[in-house]
Amino acid sequence: MDVFISSLISGYEALREAAAEAISTLGHRVLRAEDFAASTSTPQQACLAGVRAADVVVLLVVDQYGAVQESGLSATHEEYLEARDAKPVLVFVQSGVTRDEQQQRFLDEVQAWTTGHFRAGFDSADALRVAVTKALHEFELARSTGQVDEEEMTARALEMLGLDRHGRGDARLILSVAAGPYQQIIRPAELEAPSLARELQREAMFGAYAVLDPDASTDVSVSGSVLHLEQRRASVMIDESGALRIVQPARVDPRQTGGGAVLPAIIEEDIAEALRRALRFAGWMFEHVDSRQRLTDVVPVAALADAEYMPWRTRAEQQASPNAANMGTGGAQDPVMLTPARKHRQALVQDTDRLADDLMHLLRRGHR
After folding, report:
1. How many C-beta atoms lie closer than 10 Å to residue 83's C-beta?
2. CA 193, 195, 200, 206 torsion: positive or negative?
3. DSSP assignment string, 229-265
4. Among residues 145, 175, 206, which one ends one of the domains?
5. Rounded to two decimals, what is the model's pTM?
6. 111 and 230 inside one domain
């Protein structure tokens, strides 16, 4: 593998060398700023290109934040953000030091994102060498089940979406999430265990990010390798690989005003909120069935079903004109996904608002 070392350089040469020795000992190639050849690129451009070329990033969080660049961030912070959404980051936090205020905020940000699977502390160069060696070895073992394949994950997410173009007639918002690397996360015996269904049903109906109606009856069943929680207008299903599908009503406004019915519509704010709940529920579900963090990456895909003829409106637009709107022209809407489609699993919890907002805008664009 190509492994990029990200940290302050001046004053921390011994730490960087210890990390490089650990990487080389395991037979991997070290990428670091001090080894880059002279080029027309700026040091910042060269380092960010190195991050993009790497398979893994080793991040050393020391006591100092470093000089602030034009972006308002340190070079190390920029490198971390470049890597965070695209590849694994192995975090090593220096202990026994007093961090400056900016560095502490940076550490808090990093700790909020890390899954806890590849993170360690160190208090010396020797301790860092051991920690990097151990973490890279564990990383290799975790990936021995297979590489994270974005194309394969996307195909599974689309398959899980399972859109019925001639469905029940109710407008539905559907979110499916496939995770990788592909492997069995839930054993057949666990999938059929009543305890799993009870825990998922309790969280889906009464949890902080409920996606099912707490007042509706729920049918629980196992079909093949899939556990189903079914209500009349909503459902949750999960298979043995951890792939998940959540169906919610598309928030058609049923209220009556004045002398006539409010025009049924897709309400933008309700779609965004439903996506947020579904993403956060997915994050909870992965932690529940895979606390060992074997699944590291996810591909979320969203779609609207049976909503082709309904107008898409903001809540303010609906309130201003509840009985008149431009109707849809019909025709099934294609599923939408992010670019790149693959995200780190932790994004479901730490970057929920941005993911939901982007998916909502893509759905709106396709609907209109």
Report:
1. 21
2. positive
3. EE-SS-EEEEETT--EEEEEE--B---EETTEEPPP-
4. 145
5. 0.73
6. no
CA distances from 127 to 3, 132, 199, 328 (A): 19, 9, 41, 63
42-66: average pLDDT: 90
Q: Are 167 and 293 contained in the same domain?
A: yes
| Residues 331, 226 within the same domain | yes
Dist CA 203 CA 332 (whole Å): 32
What is the rounded distance in angstroms from the CA atom of residue 297 to the CA atom of residue 341?
Answer: 10
How many residues are there in the chain?
A: 368
- Cα 101 to its chain centre, rounded Å, is 28
Both tokens of 271, joined, read 């779609």
Q: Into how many domains does the chain fold? A: 2
Token representation of residue 99: 């961090």
Give the SS3 label for residue 322.
Answer: coil
| Shared domain check, 170 and 129 | no
Q: What is the rounded CA–CA span in Å between residue 126 and residue 140?
A: 22
Residue 214 has pLDDT above 50, yes or no: yes
136-156: b (≥16 Cβ within 10 Å) or e: beebeebbeeeebbbebbbeb
Q: What is the CATH number of the domain that holds 90?
A: 3.40.50.10140
* In a shared domain, residues 258 and 157: yes
Q: Which two tokens stand for residue 346?
A: 């932790």
* H helix or E strand, kind and range, residue 298: strand 297-305
In a shared domain, residues 139 and 244: no
Residue ranges making up the domain that contains 288 = 150-367
Q: How far apart are CA 5 and CA 153, in angstroms?
A: 28
pLDDT of the residue at 262: 64
Task: Among 145, 168, 202, give the residue marking a domain's end.
Answer: 145
| Same domain as 308, residue 161 | yes
Question: Which tokens hold the place of 19?
Answer: 């990390």
Q: Tell me, yes or no, whether 157 and 201 share the same domain.
A: yes
| pLDDT tens, residue by residue, 141-187 | 766 666 788 999 999 999 998 854 444 568 899 999 999 989 999 99
Tokens of 300: 């979320």
